[in-house]
Amino acid sequence: MIELGDTLTSATAHLTFGETYGKQVEVTELIHGDTVFYFFPAAFTGVCTKSSCELRDSLSDYQELGVNVYGVSPDMPASQRVFAAQNNINYPLLSDWNKELIAAFDNTDHNFGTFKGVPKRSLYLFRDGKLAFKWEGEHAGKYPPFDELKETLKRS
C-alpha cells in the first residue's frame, strides 16, 4: 500500500487524450512537480461522471498552481475517449485496463457490485516525486474532497 512520503513503483497505463491516444506510458515518468491522479471505478456511471466533471470545471484552478492532473480508470481506451468527448473532459485520462496502476497504488475496490478489480474512488498528490496527499473513498458513492486537495496544494 502506498503511504505518504512514498514514491510510486513502476507501472504502465495508456494515455487516451488527443494526439497521445493509445500511447503506453511509464506512469512514474508523468510525475514531476505537483501531479494529481484521480482514480474512478467506471466511466459513464453517475458518481464517476459527476466527479470527473467537477474536476473538469475546476481544472483552471489546478493549472494556475502548476499542477499536472490525470484521471485513471480501468476502462478501455476507446471507452475513455467516448466518455471524455461526451463530458468535455479537458485533462488527460489514463486507461488502466490491465490494472497494473491500480495494483501499484493497492487501491482495489472489492465491493463495487459485479465489477472486479476496479479502483476505489481516490485522489493522490505527488509533490517532488513523493506522495503528499492521499484520499481513498470508503465506498463508491463517496465524492472526492477536491477542496481539501486544493488547500493542500496551496500550502507549499
Fold topology:
Layout: E1 12-15, E2 24-26, E3 34-39, H1 46-57, H2 59-64, E4 67-73, H3 77-87, E5 93-95, H4 100-105, E6 122-127, E7 130-136, H5 146-154
Parallel strand pairs: 3-4, 4-5
Antiparallel strand pairs: 1-2, 1-5, 3-6, 6-7
SS summary, helix count:
5
CATH fold name: Glutaredoxin
Distance between the termini: 25 Å
Give me the CATH architecture, please. Answer: 3-Layer(aba) Sandwich
Query: H/E order of the elements?
Result: EEEHHEHEHEEH
How much of the residues is beta strand, in percent?
Answer: 15-25%
Shape: globular
Q: Name the CATH homologous superfamily.
A: Glutaredoxin
Major sheet size, sense and barrel closure: 7 strands, mixed
* Strand order in the sheet with the most strands: 2-1-5-4-3-6-7
CATH C-level: Alpha Beta
